[in-house]
């Protein structure tokens, strides 16, 4: 078990593989210089990646904890650190610290449940870790439904893994959608919240939603319309972070620190946060 002090000390990392996922998302594989995983983590936890002289930024660990060899990060290019990472190649050294945050309750509340994962765009990054953890511990969970949507077919992160692996699993049902019609796409077209309503899931499931705040809001509304209670729905929050351990006050909402009390929250817990959020 890592202590707070351990998690604040960066370790050296080496990017060993860079995968182009979409026009603005790349997935980076990172190990220590001696080829090991930098530290253990739980599904939903994050790590701070840093490039000396450039900056540091928090990212979800998208690989599953069941992978003991390396960590992966799916990173959307949007500013200083992410632009720099997008031009990095295999062999590049960075630093990494973590793991941070409250994980998804995969070994308690999720156990034995039918699970419904709903993601939009880069929101698949934290969910991929949980989905693959549940696939690797298949006997511990009921059915798995995955609803995933993006702007276009080219913007679906991890499309190859989804098609080659997830869709082939027994009792894993994948429902993909894109925002607008596109040549070469014969799947569903439409936004995630309306697709969720259209699919009309049984309300005995535990649901996990990740994506842009607007998508989370409308999807949660759709779930409630279907009869789900907020206590059955989990989500993640992304606020700008610095320390990652509840010390600097960069990410607090009222008395809660998103880096420490989150980023995973049950949706009824969000109602207890002050209106400033
Ligand atoms: C818990 C957590 C998990 C995250 N997981 C991922 C992930 O898996 N993949 C991924 O691509 N990104 C993830 N992010 C977001 C990522 O941290 C930011 O994109 C990154 O900090 C941007 O750094 P930058 O230096 O490239 O951009 P900057 O130059 O700092 O900023 C560029 C633009 O992005 C905005 N921005 C930066 N950070 C945030 C943020 N946290 N929330 C909203 N807007 C922001 C800025 O306001 C600015 O408009 C996560 C953030 C948090 C807090
Ligand atoms: S990032 Fe420092 S308190 Fe949360």
What are the SSEs and their pairings?
Layout: H1 4-8, E1 11-22, E2 25-31, E3 46-51, E4 55-60, E5 71-76, H2 80-86, E6 93-100, E7 115-120, H3 124-136, E8 144-150, H4 159-164, E9 172-178, E10 188-189, H5 192-199, E11 206-210, H6 213-226, E12 233-236, E13 252-253, E14 256-257, H7 258-261, E15 264-266, H8 267-270
Parallel strand pairs: 7-8, 7-11, 8-9, 9-10, 11-12
Antiparallel strand pairs: 1-2, 1-6, 2-5, 3-4, 3-6, 12-15, 13-14
The chain binds flavin-adenine dinucleotide and FE2/S2 (inorganic) cluster.
Task: Give a nutshell description of this structure.
This protein is an alpha/beta fold. The chain is built from 8 helices and 15 strands.
Structural overview:
The chain is α/β, with parallel strands linked by helices. The protein is 22% helix and 30% strand. Strands 10-9-8-7-11-12-15 form a seven-stranded mixed beta sheet, with helices on both faces. Helix 6 links the parallel strand 11 and strand 12. The longest helix has 14 residues. The two termini are 32 Å apart. Flavin-adenine dinucleotide (FAD) binds next to strand 4, strand 5 and helix 2.
- The number of domains is 2
- Nearest-angstrom radius of gyration? 18 Å
CATH architecture annotation of the largest domain:
3-Layer(aba) Sandwich
- Mind summarizing the main beta sheet? 7 strands, mixed
Could you tell me the CATH topology label of the largest domain.
Rossmann fold
Please identify the structural class as seen in this structure: alpha/beta
CATH H-level homologous superfamily name of the largest domain: Nucleotide-binding domain of ferredoxin-NADP reductase (FNR) module
Uncertain runs are none
Give helix % range: 10-25%
| Number of helical regions | 8
The strand line-up of the biggest sheet is 10-9-8-7-11-12-15
Q: How many E strands? A: 15
CATH class of the largest domain equals Alpha Beta
Portion in beta strands: 25-35%
Strand/helix succession: HEEEEEHEEHEHEEHEHEEEHEH
């Amino acid at each position: 078990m890592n202590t707070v002090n351990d998690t604040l000390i960066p370790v050296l990392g080496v990017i060993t593989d860079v995968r182009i996922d979409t026009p603005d998302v790349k997935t980076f594989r990172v190990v220590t210089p001696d080829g090991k995983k930098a530290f253990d983590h739980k599904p939903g936890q994050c790590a701070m990646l840093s490039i000396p002289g450039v900056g540091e930024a928090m990212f979800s660990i998208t690989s599953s904890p069941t992978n003991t060899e390396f960590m992966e990060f799916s990173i959307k290019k949007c500013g200083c650190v992410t632009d720099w990472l997008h031009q990095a190649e295999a062999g590049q050294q960075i630093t990494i610290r973590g793991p941070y945050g409250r994980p998804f309750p995969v070994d308690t509340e999720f156990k034995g449940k039918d699970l419904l994962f709903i993601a939009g765009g880069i929101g698949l990054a934290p969910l991929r870790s949980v989905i693959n953890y549940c696939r690797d511990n298949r006997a511990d969970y009921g059915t798995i439904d995955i609803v995933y949507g993006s702007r276009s077919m080219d913007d679906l992160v991890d499309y190859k893994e989804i098609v080659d692996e997830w869709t082939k699993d027994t009792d894993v049902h994948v429902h993909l959608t894109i925002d607008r019609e596109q040549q070469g796409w014969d799947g569903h077209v439409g936004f995630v919240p309306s697709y969720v309503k259209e699919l009309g899931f049984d309300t005995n499931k535990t649901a996990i939603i990740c994506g842009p705040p607007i998508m989370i809001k409308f999807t949660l509304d759709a779930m409630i319309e279907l009869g789900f209670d907020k206590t059955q729905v989990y989500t993640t929050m992304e606020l700008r972070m610095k320390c990652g351990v509840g010390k600097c006050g960069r990410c607090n909402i009222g008395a809660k620190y998103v880096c420490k009390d989150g980023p995973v929250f049950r949706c009824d817990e969000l109602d207890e946060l002050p209106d400033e959020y």
